[in-house]
Design goal:
The complex is a heterodimer of chains A (316) and B (224). Chain A has 4 helices and 21 strands. With 316 residues, chain A is an alpha+beta fold. Chain B is an alpha+beta fold and 224 residues long. Chain B has 2 domains: 70 residues, Gyrase A, domain 2, CATH 3.30.1360; 135 residues, Cyclophilin-like (Cyclophilin), CATH 2.40.100.10. A 7-stranded mixed beta sheet of chain B has the order 5-13-6-7-10-9-12. Chain B has a 4-stranded antiparallel beta sheet with strand order 1-2-4-3, with helices on one face. In chain B, a hairpin with a 2-residue loop joins strand 9 and strand 10. The N and C termini of chain B lie far apart (48 Å). Classes of the chains: A alpha+beta (316), B alpha+beta (224).
């Protein structure tokens, strides 16, 4: 029997399989999940010649150390990531993001850290030998669903791969993960629950991303947002990007593994075009919010889509 | 019927069925949910029913707020029989190890522990919705004397199986998760079973639920 897997020599901090997410399960409490940084996900799959539905390994802060036990594979890393390739013959190569490379039997890839960002992605041509759950390969660790029994990667485990024979072709693009000055938002459905001072603070003062930030949500700290109506609402649906403000006045931004309903007033919603850059903000980062109108948000998303397409079209 | 439609961000339609929280309003929400779901409208990524709201989220590169809003307004509802409602009995242990917020409740409501629990157990509840985390049922209505707001700062981790109350509702934490409800006990019952892909939630909207007390010993033995 031929070997065809990666052995996990170090799992990394929060390494999971992710794809574009799990649709239409909100009514039983299952969020979309899926990749935190969609553009980096799409770029990586395009580089290694995969379609958009082939799951990537997503990692946070520190990625995994993987040893290939297989014939060669074509791989790529996206994000702002430091990594090394430890060849079976003891040569060490410094890895470059946004370009394809080959891994051979016995080679190791050591994903050391993400640089001034949270999430990075590792792709192989053909993808991994995993089963979808409710039509998605995304691991939801909260509900424990998805491949790998819905759990993060662990030490010494094997990640089986689909052996797809493909001729190696060097592919690379120049891509710089841009920083964001403002997080652009639309007014939330409970905007008028907050005092004028509260909403002024929200749009004019700086907030800091707290350590209580994960795939589910991001808590931020800054001036307290004063509620003048009611600190609770009747629980209702949530989506990625919604900013809830609980009674303590500290906003919480919903991210990919959000709870599907919530009962704190919604002051604002982050526009779809800014999701990727929002999720990459590390604890301690400073952020400011900027109010936009729906039409503008829609146009900004169109622009985001066009930019993404242009980047993908550069990969041939 | 829908009282007001607005946008929630640039990727969701927010349908408000009014401020009233009762079974009639909720059945209306569920009817819209079922009818919309059947149409399989392109671009919709999720439809989320709650007590008195329905949120329809979508992929903004495929459709937009205006288009979907009009589709929802023009929706021709056809009556659907409600699924058979079940009565489910859930055991709870209220040992101090599990009743994390009984002290807070007792202080804020100015009631003795026993009084709170008597009010809680002596009631049949209706399931308005499931969500927040997988399979979590939102049940109502609790008796008026034990209604209280959520915690000011939600817990980062609420233990799996916890029974929480807030305002006129109670719920069951099907997994360990963050949460802000007042925790009064814990159940050993598996409320969400992912291995049952067709019907993973034990309690579904429209079902009825009663709770009964078990000892710590019975709790420990429950899953043996």
């Amino acid at each position: 029997m031929s070997k065809n897997y990666f052995e996990i020599l170090r799992p990394g901090i929060n390494s999971t399989f992710q794809d574009l997410g799990r649709f239409n399960q909100h009514h039983i409490g299952i969020p979309m999940s899926g990749t935190m940084d969609k553009r980096n996900y799409l770029i990586g799959n395009k580089l290694v010649g995969n379609n958009n539905n082939i799951s990537a390994i997503e990692f946070a802060y520190q990625g995994p150390l993987l040893k290939l036990q297989s014939s060669k594979v074509i791989a790529a890393v996206t994000g702002n990531v430091n990594f090394k390739i430890l060849r079976a013959n003891s040569n060490i190569e410094v890895g470059e993001c946004y370009e394809t490379f080959e891994l051979n039997d016995g080679d190791q890839i050591d994903i050391i850290s993400t640089n001034k960002s949270v999430y990075g992605y590792f792709f192989i041509n053909g993808g991994f030998e995993i089963e979808p759950f409710w039509k998605s390969f995304s691991i939801n660790t909260m509900a424990q669903i998805g491949p790998n029994n819905g759990t993060k990667f662990s030490l010494n485990q094997k990640l089986f791969i689909k052996n797809k024979e493909s001729k190696f072709q060097k592919k690379r693009i120049e891509y710089l993960n841009s920083k964001i000055e403002f997080i652009r938002v639309l007014k939330g459905t409970n905007f008028n629950y907050f005092s004028e001072e509260g909403t002024n603070n929200f749009f004019n003062k700086e907030f800091t991303v707290s350590k209580l930030t994960d795939r589910m949500g991001m808590r931020i700290e800054g001036p307290k947002i004063e509620n003048i109506i009611e600190t609770n609402i009747k629980s209702e649906g949530l989506i990625k990007g919604v900013i809830q403000v609980p009674g303590d006045g500290n906003p919480i931004i919903m991210l990919s593994d959000y709870g599907t309903v919530g009962g704190y007033p919604k002051i604002a919603v982050v526009i779809s075009a800014d999701h990727d850059r929002l999720t990459q903000l590390t604890p301690g980062s400073k952020i400011k919010f900027k109010l936009v109108e729906l039409k503008e948000a829609e146009n900004l998303y169109k622009l985001y889509e066009i930019e993404t397409k242009n980047i993908l079209n550069q990969i041939r | 019927m829908i009282k007001n439609i607005t946008n929630l961000g640039d990727a969701a339609v927010y349908c408000d069925f009014g401020n009233q929280i009762d079974q009639e309003t909720n059945l209306n929400v569920i009817k819209y949910f079922k009818n919309l779901k059947e149409l399989k409208i392109e671009g919709i990524t999720n439809i989320t029913p709650s007590y008195n709201k329905l949120i329809v989220s979508f992929e903004p590169s495929v459709t937009n707020y205006e288009k979907l809003k009009n589709k929802i307004i023009d929706l021709k509802l056809h009556n659907k029989e409600n699924q058979n409602s079940k009565l489910i009995k859930i055991p709870i242990c209220i040992d101090e190890e599990f009743s994390l917020d009984i002290k807070r409740l007792s202080k804020k409501l100015k009631m003795k522990y026993d009084q709170i629990y008597n009010s809680f157990f002596d009631k049949e509840y209706y399931c308005y919705m499931t969500g927040f985390i997988a399979g979590m049922p939102f049940l109502g209505d609790t008796r008026k004397n034990i209604r209280l707001n959520r915690l000011e700062t939600p817990r980062v981790k609420v233990p799996k199986g916890s029974i929480g109350i807030t305002e006129q509702f109670c719920n069951i934490y099907t997994y360990e998760s963050p949460g802000g409800w007042n925790i009064i006990g814990n159940t050993p019952v598996k409320i969400f079973d992912k291995s049952n892909q067709e019907n993973p939630a034990l309690i579904n909207p429209g079902d009825r639920v009663t709770f009964y007390k078990i000892s710590k010993q019975e709790y420990r033995k429950y899953n043996e």
